[in-house]
Design goal:
Elements: H1 3-27, H2 32-59, H3 68-89, H4 102-126, H5 129-155, H6 162-183
Length: 188
């Protein structure tokens, strides 16, 4: 995975963290310390989940090497489609964003990182361990920055166009899936 691919991968995965951290900051009083805790927690899980997924994908790499690019494509495409569907469907914001308790922060971090686990499986099928670690580091850093930006935007009552952000993130993941197929000559 190239540096640009890692950045695009990270940007697509951290959109949920940006949106959720903005919403949390809009809906409740967010101190800098609480915002920092939120961003660090999101970054940890957003980096940890794709790493676990990649290690799992890498463990089965030899067994499924003939179709690994199709599996990576399917995981990226399905996750991308789900992100687009979720973005277009919207959310009613029903009070789940009270971050006064650390348990709520962890629950939100896990919820925003599940797609990263699934995409991480595909990452492990097509990349070396150094590439995986580099990409996971980029994902964690970008998630931290996105969550801190979300806290800042929320404190200043700036809304994120959630539908567009989620849809674009989904399209990026789908594009990375197609790129995987092209690199393996599966479409040509």
């Amino acid at each position: 995975m190239s540096f640009v691919d890692s950045i695009l991968f990270a940007l697509a995965l951290c959109v949920d963290s940006l949106i959720v951290s903005t919403t949390c900051s809009l809906k409740c009083k967010m101190t800098f310390r609480r915002g920092l805790l939120l961003a660090l927690t999101f970054a940890f899980f957003q980096g940890f989940f794709p790493l676990i997924g990649a290690l799992l994908g890498g463990a089965f790499k030899e067994v499924i090497s003939a179709v690994d690019h199709w599996i990576a494509f399917a995981l990226l495409a399905l996750t991308g489609l789900k992100m687009i569907w979720d973005a277009l469907r919207g959310d009613d914001g029903d009070g789940r964003f009270d971050v006064s308790r650390f348990g709520v922060i962890v629950a939100l971090a896990v919820a925003t990182s599940i797609d990263a686990f699934v995409v991480g499986i595909g990452l492990g099928l097509n990349n070396t361990l150094p590439q995986i670690l580099f990409t996971v580091l980029i994902v964690a850093v970008m998630t931290f920055l996105a969550a801190m930006m979300g806290v800042f935007l929320g404190k200043h009552n700036v809304l994120i166009p959630e539908k567009w952000a989620g849809a674009i993130a989904g399209i990026v993941l789908m594009g990375l899936g197609v790129k995987t197929l092209l690199e393996h000559g599966a479409l040509g």
